[in-house]
Amino acid sequence: MTAGATELPASASTVIVGGGIVGAACAFFLSDRGAEDVVLLERGSLGSGTTKGGLGGIRHQFTDELDVRLSLMATEFWREFGSFTGSVHEFEERGYLFLAQTPAGLAELKAPLELYERLGVPVEMLDREQIEDLVPGIRTDDLAGGRLCARDGYGDPLAALAGFAAAALLGGARIVEGTAVTGLIRDGDRVTGVRTERGDVRAERVLLATGCWTAGMAATAGVTVPIWPYPRRVMESQPMPLLAGIPMVIEWESGFHFRPKEGRQRFAMPNLTPGGAIEKGPARPPASFDDLVFPALDVPAALEPWVRERAARRHPAFTDLEITSRWSCYYEMTPDDHPVVGAVPGVEGLYIAAGFSGHGFMHTPAVAQLVAEEMLDGKATTLDISDLSLERFQTGRRPFTPTVL
Predict the structure, then answer these.
(1) Quick one: which of 1, 50, 116, 383 could link to 121 by a disulfide (CB 3.0–4.6 Å)?
(2) Comparing C-alpha atoms, which of 16, 390, 58 is closest to residue 225?
(3) Residue 127 CB neighbour total at 10 angstroms
(4) Is the pTM above the cut of 0.70?
């Protein structure tokens, strides 16, 4: 994806472990701030982990104020991505349209309206006629209403990753691909570097931008991080140009959603239990997870007919839906569906930016800037991220309001 370095340095001021979009963005923000000797290590190639599998959604419509503020900060960057990085990434502001099928669901959509108004997020409630105007032909007779933020939208995670990486390299950062980090080097209460298949790299600071693999990596320094993988599936249709300009459409109750991508439609859906019921989130961490090799995931055969039926019920254009490709990826989940961001208490020199629970791409510019502030200034100042500290799982810091996707 980018022409990085091949030589492994013996030392660096900052080592970033993980070459997904979060790691690349952190390398960019650190180098943009003037940080010298920043090295990003990626075991495969950039974007070969979870970044490549996502839908690329970018939205403000959360129910927790911190999430909304992260989105406001991130979307400001997404809109000006080219001017900041010198690379092209199109943030398509076509909106997020949530559809409620029940009065209870509609009430849940209305609940955060005061929050949106206070923070200046342009959200409006829609009736059936307005929904039909926005997505011509969509079925609305089973709907109680909808909620739209026209400033939401979607982007391309791999294109954005390439832009961040290229800008980081121009800023003096080094990117070393094909180099697996096998563990952290800890000396007393401090992390002093990383061990790789090719040798050790000493560092003043180490940032884990390692997604689903963070728990295993942190454990090598005696740090417990409650992050685990949760499989998600995506399917893509044949070209459907008549729906090329619609917003991201999400059924509130089921979690089924779809959006255009280069003239096709991409569908994402909840997991199904063995009995065929909707599973909105992981009931518990898996018994084990191979944190060295990204597991190949099959798309369960039962999901395709479920998607076909659900899609055709929502829009007649999907009646003869042809699924041309399908893939699986992972959400990196935490117990409260929110990331672990910032310095690790009690372990000097170790930082984490992981566990985004499906929101990593959309919040990347905000989180990367805030992590850079904390690493270089001792504290994130643009936005208070103390609620995202790892220690919240021990101290019981204030609970987050739940997320939907």
Answers:
(1) 116
(2) 390
(3) 12
(4) yes
Same domain, 144 and 161: no
Domain boundary among 329, 353, 379: 329
Q: Which two tokens stand for residue 126?
A: 């829609």
Q: Do 241 and 299 have their domain in common?
A: yes
Residue 295's pLDDT is: 46
Report which DSSP code applies to 7.
S
β-bridge partners, 259: 266
CA 104 from chain center: how many Å? 28
Structure tokens that stand for 233 in this block: 């599936």
141 and 242 together in one domain? yes
Question: How confident is the model at residue 276, as a pLDDT?
Answer: 66
* Range of the structural domain that residue 238 is part of: 93-151+232-329
Q: CB–CB of 76/53 below 8 Å?
A: no
Residue 322 lies in a domain: yes
Phi/psi of residue 50, nearest 5 degrees: -80, -20
Instruction: Assign residue 191 the CATH number of its domain.
Output: 3.50.50.60
Q: What is the DSSP string of 73-100?
A: HHHHHHHTHHHHHSS----B---EEEEE
How many domains does the chain contain in total? 2
> Which residues in the chain land under pLDDT 70?
1-5, 273-276, 280-297, 402, 404
Residue 113 within any structural domain of the chain: yes
Helices and strands (H, E) in the chain, number of each type: 11, 20
Regarding whether 178 and 147 lie in a shared domain, the answer is: no
The residue ranges of DSSP E strands in 211-263, in sequence order, are 228-237, 248-251, 257-261
DSSP of 10-68, one letter per residue? SEEEEEEE--SHHHHHHHHHHHHTT--SEEEE-SSSTTTTTGGG---EE----SSHHHH
Q: Which of 302, 329, 356 is the last residue of a domain?
A: 329
